[in-house]
């Protein structure tokens, strides 16, 4: 027997007083809204980690979801005469799709090599289901006690928006740090299915026929059991997915509230010379360290700035792996090095992992080193204001060993405002070394960094290393006009004494007339 065809505004038979029943429906609106926003944030966060460019992915997820919510609201009109059954089925499917979306996206990326199609598909499906909730809940709440449509909508939207606030705060402060993305999404699905089940299978049970009631109970129960069982396999799933992405030689994988750090390869940094796998460090899926590159990248980044004038006080922005720090400490005259690193987990790996520690030569144990946790931008603002702990003395050298610029949160670390703060932190003869991306592969990005440095009042000397990778750097200084730049034929061996040094050259194909990148107008494609 199916559920009865009902007058959408007919009075419902409830097991509790009407006022309490109305409160329970509004509570379910609150819970469902919180869960819906968690699903959205899960998709944005995971897609940004898997494919980068958080601005684009956030825009795609949110715009597709809002569009799909409109579709869901239209489709829900056909379910109004079976509002109780329709709401129960929508919540069960939403819990399954939303709760499992994070694992499905991760699996799609790990084994199929992409996430775009799955991202759009899940955004569309979740949006349709979220959009179907409100018309059905409007019908159910009117069946408890009929009131004008404006008053009912005001109550529903109030509960919906407050729930969205709670969901938005729960995601970064509870689910991510304590459960992680995959388990957090599954548990959100359990809460979602439970809320829908309580409303229909208990509060509106008289609106559903006996056979349909048992069917809905079976469906809801199966979804909840499946999601809870999924949490038991998250650990094994993550291990296999990471192996599919990083290879069988994965050694360490640590997920923090900020990023995921993965170490692969042999603990002996020289093993690749004997046919072994090189030690590699990945941060949020991006390769940051490879022992096969030797000292080339970090000596090229640090060497020119450290040998071009005084170097007693050094500020290292990023560089939690300790390799740029190792190069800084090799120079005579260094008295104090401050490392500003946003994620302490990377520093802890650099201190404790045997392979990474051998590679950085135990740089963090040097008594001249001070580690300061925090965002590089915030650190420089504190210095400019003379805030406690910010350090009021200027720096002889600032080394920016940060992720490459892009249209994401990293863009502010390559902005005119950021470099203006760096300039204020430098001594009159101070220098800044910046990794500016790939000069040959992405010349517009590289020369935009150089133009941004000049717009902040710094004199620039662009240089690059072609082998074994395409690395582009810019040396900037506060020195007056006429100060020598970096000769194109000079090698890092004359600067640092490093073995097998790279050859520095002036990049070809300068792009003139590029506008600087600012906080309000990021220019990095």
Automatic annotation (TrEMBL):
The chain crosses the membrane at residues 20-39, 59-76, 88-109, 115-141, 153-176, 182-204, 216-237. It is found in: Cell membrane. It is a multi-pass membrane protein. S-methyl-5'-thioadenosine binds at residues 259, 375-376. SUPFAM superfamilies: MFS general substrate transporter, S-adenosyl-L-methionine-dependent methyltransferases. The active site is at residue 401. Residues 482-525 are annotated as: Disordered. PROSITE patterns: PABS_1, PABS_2. Residues 233-478 form the PABS domain. GO terms for molecular function: spermidine synthase activity. InterPro entries: MFS_trans_sf (IPR036259), PABS (IPR030374), PABS_CS (IPR030373), SAM-dependent_MTases_sf (IPR029063), Spermi_synthase (IPR001045). Belongs to the spermidine/spermine synthase family. Homodimer or homotetramer. This is Polyamine aminopropyltransferase. The gene is speE.
């Amino acid at each position: 027997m199916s559920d009865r065809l009902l007058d959408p505004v007919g009075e419902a038979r409830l097991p509790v007083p009407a006022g309490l029943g109305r409160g329970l429906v509004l509570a379910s609106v609150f819970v469902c809204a919180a869960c819906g926003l968690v699903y959205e944030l899960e998709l944005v966060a995971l897609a940004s980690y898997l494919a980068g460019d958080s601005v684009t992915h956030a825009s795609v997820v949110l715009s597709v979801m809002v569009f799909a919510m409109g579709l869901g609201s239209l489709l829900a009109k056909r379910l109004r005469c079976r509002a109780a059954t329709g709401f129960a089925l929508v919540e069960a499917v939403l819990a399954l799709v939303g709760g499992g979306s994070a694992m499905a996206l991760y699996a799609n990326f790990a084994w199929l090599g992409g996430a775009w199609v799955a991202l759009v598909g899940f955004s569309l499906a979740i949006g349709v289901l979220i959009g179907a909730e409100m018309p059905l809940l409007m019908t159910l709440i009117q069946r408890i006690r009929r009131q004008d449509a404006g008053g009912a909508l005001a109550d529903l939207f109030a509960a919906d928006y407050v729930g969205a606030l709670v969901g938005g705060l729960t995601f970064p402060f509870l689910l991510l740090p304590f459960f992680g993305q995959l388990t957090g999404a599954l548990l959100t699905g359990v809460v979602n299915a439970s809320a829908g089940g309580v409303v229909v299978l208990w509060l509106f049970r008289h609106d559903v026929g006996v056979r349909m009631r048992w069917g809905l109970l079976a469906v809801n129960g199966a979804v909840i059991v499946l999601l809870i069982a999924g949490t038991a396999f998250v650990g094994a799933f993550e291990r296999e997915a990471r192996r599919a992405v990083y290879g069988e030689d994965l050694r360490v994988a640590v997920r923090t509230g900020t990023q995921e750090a993965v170490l692969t390869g042999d603990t002996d940094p020289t093993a690749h010379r004997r046919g072994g796998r090189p030690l590699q460090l990945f941060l949020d899926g991006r390769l940051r360290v490879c022992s096969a590159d030797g000292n080339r990248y970090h000596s090229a980044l640090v060497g020119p700035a450290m040998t071009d004038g005084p170097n007693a006080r050094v500020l290292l922005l990023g560089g939690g792996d300790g390799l740029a720090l190792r190069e800084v400490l090799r120079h005579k005259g260094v008295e104090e090095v401050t490392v500003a690193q946003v994620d302490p987990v990377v520093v802890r790996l650099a201190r404790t992992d045997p392979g990474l520690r051998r590679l950085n030569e135990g740089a963090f144990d040097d008594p001249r080193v001070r580690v300061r946790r925090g965002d590089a931008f915030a650190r420089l603002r504190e210095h400019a204001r003379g805030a406690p702990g910010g350090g009021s003395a200027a720096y002889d050298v600032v080394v920016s060993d940060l992720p490459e610029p892009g249209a994401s949160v990293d863009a502010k670390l390559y902005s005119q405002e950021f470099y203006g703060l760096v300039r204020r932190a430098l001594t009159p003869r101070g220098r800044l070394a910046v990794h500016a991306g790939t000069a040959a592969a992405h010349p517009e990005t590289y020369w935009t960094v150089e133009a941004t440095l000049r717009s902040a009042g710094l004199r620039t000397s662009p240089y690059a290393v072609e082998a074994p990778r395409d690395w582009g750097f810019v040396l900037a200084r506060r020195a007056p006009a006429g100060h020598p730049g970096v000769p194109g034929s000079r090698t890092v061996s004359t600067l640092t004494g490093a073995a097998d040094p790279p050859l520095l050259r002036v990049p070809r194909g300068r792009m003139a007339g590029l506008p600087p990148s600012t906080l309000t107008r990021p220019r990095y494609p």
